[in-house]
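Question (not urgent): is this output format expected?
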Amino acid sequence: MRCVIARYPFELTKNEVLASMKGITPELISGESVTIGRRRYPVKQVGEVITRQDRRDFTSGEVVRAMTRLGFTCHDHPDATPVRVPTPLQAATELLGGPAPRDA
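Got this back:
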């Protein structure tokens, strides 16, 4: 499949991407990611490996589009559970042991 990343055309196949990423240890994911094989990689790391370009030369969106077209599963952000932070009133009420204020 032909795709353009950082203004350069690349002919990529799913098997070539799998072979390129074989043996590469995934970095810590802090943004968009792609599942290749049984591992999940940051898209910038994948883009750097398959294009041999500096990560600053392309956007994560370019790599996500290419990986999606090749049939890989892309993820928007790392799986994180949102933490509910109590308001000062809720925290004080819990400390004092009174009834919890109702959410407005």
